[in-house]
User: Which sequence fits this backbone?
């Protein structure tokens, strides 16, 4: 077993690489001094300043609202797309469908942002909508790439799901929609939740696409962070980052606990049986 | 029983057809409208010909001056992209950064994925979660963290001076090295995840058989594990390579004047120079460049998916 030590060394190095920058951000968010080089003692004044930064708070509120709308719509569309891919076999146009659903996962943001902007401008000229850019255009842009991520998450769950419960309900005379709502949806609920959270995070995080498709007066949180980061290191941003990390860690903890306490998922990965 | 099904079946069939339409049609319509159509618009702007003066085209062009003038300018800009050394340098620079960083991610990520995949079962999920966790915090903020570390009076330089390894600060921020560090940091999880997925499915019996036959571990790794994990390597590499080619935030915040990347040039043409047609031409070029790796990734994905389906009982 001693052969594994270099491997574990590499693992430790990798985790250090991933976590040290984040830890430093957290530590320096409590630094009294404005300078990153000097430790001026423990202080929470940057958090107080953060909470008084009206521009930043407005942007954060806008971002959260966009992220919530985005996540909700993306979960609906992404789940429909996953249903299509898992349940409808080789339908006509499937190849194109899959291609279009995979592309947003890797497509550079600058391309998505620019092309959507050109679309919105063209649409505005032809049909008069969207009238100006802001909340709705950013939300549409975010939904477009978020649904691809949701589809990946839900698809994995759906294709490894035990279908015998659905078949039993069907045999007992349940309608397809009833089966879907009462059996399938509860079974894939964890995937829907993680898909929603993923979509929410992706939207909250996006700088590039939102910059292209936003208009005057709709500045999202990443845009404010970006312009202040370009000015150099700011302790307020450290404080913001720490709040971000705390929320994420809390969410992961709650999700982990609730999943651990909840009912165990059925014999996933094995079932499928006679359905195909 | 019989009358029930006689009246019930058409209804169920109708509901099924409706479900089919809903499940396939609605998402298809959305991505068609907001993902495919925009590309068509960008492509049309990129390859526009002077003869094209139809109403839909002029309408597309109306945002600057008159339609006719606009089309001529866009063509000029498109040929400019191909002739000007700046854009070529940016393209090559992007490809270089993406290649180097993909390789670095592979070198760091493969041992990590291997260690996680071969760890005791109850450790695998927590270890994997630790890899994914940073991904859930803001990308922008994680890149920003490196500014404080790498700048000339930053933490790394102070640390090295304190150790006595260097006398005066090294210039790391705003160099190519900083871009490499930032990209590898931000994209490492994308390499580890597909590699892990691939390595956990590896049939350990093959390795045991090789060992029984007297094959040394390193040789067994080279002859068995490495070839079998090739799909994971390709998938991870594409997930890193393709988005990095068009990366904007990292070269902008960490890079210097010499780290010219196409995503940053596109951004500057759009936001600083307000030259939308030129930005569209650049996007077209970038898209064409990424088509080959994307198709490669897609085909691999489909093969894996069908393998996965076939492997299931």
Assistant:
């Amino acid at each position: 077993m001693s052969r594994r030590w270099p491997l574990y060394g590499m693992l430790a190095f990798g985790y250090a690489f991933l976590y040290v920058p984040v830890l430093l951000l957290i530590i320096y968010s409590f630094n009294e001094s404005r300078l990153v080089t000097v430790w001026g003692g423990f202080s929470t004044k940057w958090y107080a300043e953060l909470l008084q930064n009206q521009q930043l708070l407005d942007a954060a509120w806008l971002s959260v609202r966009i992220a919530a709308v985005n996540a909700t719509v993306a979960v609906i569309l992404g789940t429909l797309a996953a249903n299509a891919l898992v349940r409808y076999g080789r339908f006509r146009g499937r190849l194109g469908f899959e291609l279009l659903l995979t592309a947003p996962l890797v497509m550079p943001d600058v391309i998505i942002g620019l092309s959507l902007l050109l679309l919105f401008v063209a649409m505005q000229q032809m049909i008069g909508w969207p009238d100006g850019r802001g909340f709705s255009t950013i939300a549409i842009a975010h939904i477009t790439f978020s649904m691809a991520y949701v589809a990946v998450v839900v698809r994995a769950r759906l294709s490894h799901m035990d279908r015998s419960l659905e078949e039993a309900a069907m045999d007992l005379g349940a309608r397809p929609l009833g089966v879907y709502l009462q059996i399938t949806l509860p079974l894939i609920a964890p995937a829907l939740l993680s898909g929603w959270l993923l979509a929410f995070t992706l939207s909250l995080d996006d700088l590039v696409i939102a910059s292209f498709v936003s208009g005057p007066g709709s500045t999202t949180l990443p845009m404010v962070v970006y312009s202040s980061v370009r000015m150099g290191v700011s302790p307020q941003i450290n404080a913001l980052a720490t709040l971000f990390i705390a929320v994420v860690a809390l969410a992961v903890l709650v999700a982990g606990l609730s999943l651990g306490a909840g009912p165990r998922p059925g014999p996933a990965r094995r079932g499928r049986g006679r359905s195909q | 029983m019989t009358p029930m099904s006689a009246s019930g079946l058409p209804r169920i069939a109708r509901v099924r057809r409706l479900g089919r339409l809903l499940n396939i049609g609605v998402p298809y319509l959305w991505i068609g409208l907001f993902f495919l159509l925009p590309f068509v618009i960008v492509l049309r702007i990129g390859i526009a010909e002077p003869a094209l003066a139809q109403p839909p085209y002029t309408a597309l062009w109306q945002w600057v001056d008159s339609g006719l003038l606009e089309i001529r300018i866009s063509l000029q800009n498109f040929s400019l992209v191909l002739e000007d050394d700046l854009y070529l340098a940016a393209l090559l620079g992007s490809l270089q950064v993406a290649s180097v960083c993909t390789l670095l991610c592979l070198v760091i990520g493969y041992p990590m994925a291997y260690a996680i995949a071969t760890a005791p079962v109850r450790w695998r999920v927590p270890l994997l979660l630790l890899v994914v966790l940073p991904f859930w915090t803001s990308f922008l903020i994680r890149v920003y963290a490196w500014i404080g570390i790498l700048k000339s009076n930053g933490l790394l330089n102070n640390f090295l001076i304190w150790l006595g390894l260097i006398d005066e600060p090294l210039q790391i921020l705003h160099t190519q090295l900083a871009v490499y560090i930032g990209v590898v940091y931000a994209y490492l999880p994308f390499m580890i995840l597909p590699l892990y997925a691939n390595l956990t499915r590896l049939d350990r019996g093959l390795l045991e058989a090789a060992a029984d036959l007297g094959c040394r571990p390193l040789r067994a790794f080279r002859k068995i594990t490495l070839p079998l994990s090739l799909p994971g390597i390709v998938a991870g590499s594409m997930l890193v390579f393709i988005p990095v080619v068009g990366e904007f935030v990292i070269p902008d915040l960490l890079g210097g004047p010499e780290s010219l990347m196409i995503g940053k040039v596109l951004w500057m043409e759009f936001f600083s120079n307000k030259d939308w047609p030129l930005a569209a031409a650049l996007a077209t070029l970038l898209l064409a460049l990424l088509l080959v790796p994307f198709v490669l990734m897609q085909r691999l994905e489909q093969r894996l998916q069908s393998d996965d389906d076939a492997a299931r009982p």
